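Progress note, project year one: complex with glutamic acid.
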Amino acid sequence: MKTRFAPSPTGLLHVGNARTALIAWLWARAQGGVFVLRIDDTDTARSQTKFIKALQEDLRWLGLDWDSKVHQSARLTHYRTVIDGLIARDRVYPCYESADELALLRRAQQAQGKPPRYHRDSMSAQERAARARAGARPHYRFALSPEPVVWQDLILGEVSFGGHELSDPVIMREDQSFTYHLCSVIDDVDMAMSTVIRGVDHLANTAAHIQMIQALEGPPITFAHLPLIVGADSRPLSKREEDVSLAGLRELGIEALALAHLLAFPGGLAHAELMPDTAAMAERFELSAWGRSPQHFRLEDLHLLNGRVLSQRPFRAVRETLMMLIPGADPIRLEALWDIARENIQTQQDMIGWWQIIEHDELPLQGLADVPPGIGADFLAAAIELLPPEPWDEKVLKAWIRAVGERTGQKGKSLFGTLRVCLTGRPDGPNLTTLLSLMGRARTHARLAACAR
Ligand code: GLU
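Model obtained:
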């Protein structure tokens, strides 16, 4: 089994093509196959070295590696040789229409209620010859044969296209540059790809590509087309303005493992068990879990998963990032905070707020509205009066809360919840007694006093 991921380096890697890369990688690893990274950089005007570099960093970040890497730009003379051979066999033919003429042809076909389509008969042989004689520069198309193309898709089952349903694809432009189609197929055949996994937006391309594979006398390739990936509003992700690049998600504090889990399982959050890395995911990966229904990509789901991933991370795994987010933090206190707060955060950035709660005198008391009515001066006075001397630990603080409860007659939420809101400004969060032992007596006292005012 051999497959590839073939990005065009004309922009940053986004969620859509990262999914294609991930699924192809998982399937290759699940099958003990070979995974190739192929850089589709024949479009020299739009391809950029910085994007080639960025996409490799993004793939590595996601937890993917590759057994080899090919740049299409290094194979241009070879493509030309193969194309010349197909021209000689009349499977590739020159076309002379201008963009305006093609648009006119499309409109005429639409006016007759026909789908817009181009094939060899769209221009007469005499006209072609006349234009060639007049020195017009041609572009080239691959001549599709009229026989239907049928294949067993690994995801979609049987797919078929009538040979006449599709336009003959342009494979070389007037300036002799190549379009994606034939170069991709030449590579897939030369590099003996057994399997091609890509988005369902390539479905019609596949029908043409299968005929190209046959024209090149390559062995059959198995295709798998992943469903559309849509946003929370059910619109295709690729059609939206929002930045869903991997770099953008990383900036938001998204962990690669959370993203990988969301993308690898069509049911998203339904997959209850978190795996430690992409290698472990590959052991459990099944292409047959995929179907036709669009896959949903919601940032909220990603944040929830991110929180689950972080809750399992030991401090040493996050130390470096946290120290960057909270410069000058005492690592011992930070670790103690991490151990209780990691269950209550969605991104590592959320730790900044918890750090402020234990380290800063000023508290954003936005949660005070949550103090149950009827809890007032008496309650806070008792809490202050009973506050034990340091050193503080779990036992001392539990005893204190119990004593406050006994003195004031409050329990449950009106005891714990009220203390929490007064002391942290939030209605929920990490273990309160540990948080308070990190906060210390002076700050705890000051907060209770501030609440009483
Ligand atoms: N460069 C193509 C793309 O990014 C590759 C598609 C394919 O996998 O064949 O859409």
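The chain has a mean pLDDT of 92.
The first strand starts at residue 2 and ends at 5.
No further modelling is planned for this target in the current period.
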